[in-house]
Fold this sequence. Notes:
The complex is a heterodimer of chains A (719) and B (178). Chain A is built from eight helices and 48 strands. Chain A has 719 residues and is mainly beta. Chain A folds into four domains: 25-95, no CATH class; 111-258, Immunoglobulin-like (Sandwich); 268-333, no CATH class; 347-705, TolB, C-terminal domain (Neuraminidase), CATH 2.120.10. In chain A, helix 3 packs across helix 4. Chain B folds into two domains: 1-88, Orthogonal Bundle (Rna Polymerase Sigma Factor, Chain: A), CATH 1.10.1740.10; 102-178, Arc Repressor Mutant, subunit A. Chain B is built from seven helices and one strand; from the N terminus they run αααβαααα. The longest helix of chain B is centred in the C-terminal third of the chain and has 27 residues, at 151-177. Chain B is globular and about 50 Å long. At the A-B interface, helix 2, strand 1, helix 3, helix 5 and strand 30 of A face helix 1, helix 2, helix 3, strand 1 and helix 4 of B.
Amino acid sequence: MTTPDQNSRRPSSIEDRLTGARFEPDADFANALHARLLASLPPHVEPSQSRSRSLLHRILMMPEHEGNSMSNRFRMMTAFSALVLLVMVGLFVVLVLFQPSRVAAPTQEPVSVASHTVFADTLELLESKAAQTNEGYKFELHWRPLVQPTTDYHIFIHALSGNQITGQMDGRLLGDDLTSSLSTDHDLPTTSWLPDRFISSIVTLTLNANQPSPDTLVMGLYNPETGERLVVMQDGVSVSDGQVVVWSALAISDQPTSTAPPTEAPASPKCSPENRCLSEDGRFWLHTVRPGDTLVSIAADYNSSLPCILRENGYTSGMDVLVPPAQILVCIEQPVASDVNQRQATGYQTLTMSADAQWIAIETQPAAGTWPAIWLHNPDTSETSRIATGAWPSLSADGSQVAFVITPPGNPVEWNRENLVNIYSGGFTDISSSISDLYGVACTMPVISADGQTVAFLARTVAAESLNNSAEEAVWVYDRRTNTAETAPAYSDDTAPFLAGHPGMSADGRYIVFSAGSTGNGPSGIVLWDREKGFAAIVANGFFPEISADGSTITYLESVGEAQQAVGWINAMAYNVQTGESRWLGAVLDQGPDGWWEERVLSPSADGHKIAFTSVLDDPRNPGPVPTPGGGLGSAFPNRHIYLYDWATDSVTRVDNAPDLHIDGFSYQPAISADGQKVAYLWHRPGEQFGIFLYDVSTDATTEINLIDPATGNPVAAP
Amino acid sequence: MKPQPDTTALFEEWYAAEMPRLYNYVAYLVQDRAAAEDLTAAICERALVRLAQYDAQKGSLDAWMFAIARNMVRNHQRDTSRQPRSTSLDELPEIRGRGGTPEEIAQRAEDFRQVIAHLAELSEAEQQVIALRFGADISNVDIARVLGVTPNHVGVISYRALQKLREALHLEAEDDYA
């Protein structure tokens, strides 16, 4: 029997320790944050309960000039409260004793004025929203600095009744940097607005109760030292008097109203049969999107350096848009020379290679908080192009067709792979629309057949969602010839919903492999689906499967057992479907520098006789203790190498062995050619260096691939 | 057209019930009271500003909130990764043990503190998984959704992270009892 004393000395399990206590927010902090959020609610939205906005909340909304730390501000709340109470009592007395001569206008819905307005080639006004309040008007202005202003600009708003100014406000223009997670980036003067940030300003205009209601509100910026107004351009046209209309009584409607001159939608004759159109300035591809899709802030585009404009029913909108049931054009940026990946500054996410090794597709992410992009490179001719923003490229055998997932519109900072929308293949054909009951916007990990006619990918559907509270993912296979998609037949007697993942496909599109795990924490199985016979079955326990082009060999990581987990490595396996023979390739560890990249660990040649894979072990065939990763971000990680398994000799050789190019670091995302003679891979070394390499088995030579010409900064192009 | 839920009401309900869970998750990762408060506030404010972008048909508000939280915490950690990190206990957010006698509560808080002290030794991925699983108290499937990996991958990362913590604490426990 255990004594209480023994109990107190016995350390509890890690799980018990972690669940036995928690960090508790300070009550003052929680209350103050609640009050602050309440005050920040959009002015047209009342809280769900019967709470109304108090003066306290309005005070909380006022610009705060004292103390940058939010914690400090919260701690000042108590002191504010007494003052607020006094003010409220005073206001009450004023309201009772001095009835205003004019009943305040009822609060109305906010009016969103969509505009594309630029002040002095410096500040782009993305959107302004005006809401009528009991005291006047409240404006929410969204800005994007094109360059960092050198002047502390001031703002003016004039209320016009006819040509008469009936009210006005002037003041320093301050804004919150919504792109930043730092609470110190509040109430910044324009001189602190960094380029390509998303800045939000709240401005209020108080009107004299005795004045007639205005019919128009105009806004402009000026230099307080000279009093000179900034020049305003709207869609390239200079606006007179340096002021723009931000509210008009005539503009009140349910729909956003544009004050900008309407722009012409691209003429349909310019569009290709695939609905791909080139914008008039040649910078953007425009693409038709399904009606009903929600598009968010695509205008900010992925790198925030180039505007990409939604053209909706003839006018331009730069902000969040709920696409109405009508044709909408989305911009996909043309390949440009800027924002290219460079070895010193670019993250390479994924890599694939065509069967003939003539084309390599790389997913790049120039920096944190930017959209990933798909690049194509021909190692023989050095021809390089950036085809689109997107992720997870997969190439047909000759590289002429690319399946990939287009990244969603929205803030790239908040991009994650669960939010991807629409799969496009060569010619930008939206194939996710083939699934009528697609759940949300989660289509991921497409793989394309050799002829480019078949694409397998993961998707959630409403039907799957209804099975369980979790949104199960299923593997779908789309046939471009019939424009239809199908999913696998039942492959398990288990009635519990399964979560499919990581699809692979044979060259002819007949055989599909994918991992399938119970939505609980059960083991993951490898499913082989023969589309020709309409049969699917679990053939092995494991995950991250790939299948050779001829459909003969499945490679996968074996589901770990306790003993293997204890030493931290996982078995890389190959299974010959025709002979039933299994091979142990070596021990691997499926965790990369930041833990998220490493899902394409294995790459079999067309006949499955050569298999490239990654491992952190110096000798994957003689595994010992796993090198210990360093702790925390930016610290050292164990090296990781590319190995090539030879079925004939049942042996492995290291591929990334070019010491003149790279010694230590992570080699990842191997992609082998159909003949097993070439292996392309990505490489990363802590210190933010990335590289792309191509290894030739026959010559034992490694070449580095550059997507840009260091001399010109432009993408490498064919001579 | 399907009626749109009152996202503001949803947010309010979520905040009233779940903010401590969000704070707990953030505190796991930053382990600094002021930073945890600042980040929790910034996450809520970011979410509120972007509430119109939330679509209930695409997933739960909870998953949406933690996706925002994960990204903002990650950005914060990247921004501060080059700065020397203080581990002063005075800066730790308040730890509260669950249930039991005052002694048990205190012991649980101490046990918890000992584990948390080793979190920084884990990789970023492992820290995220531990914080989401134990700090945010969400399932592996939802963690996978937030992080954009497979649930199996989450399981592997989680196992390794717990193993590392176990080893770290075992060494420490041996020292204590030596």
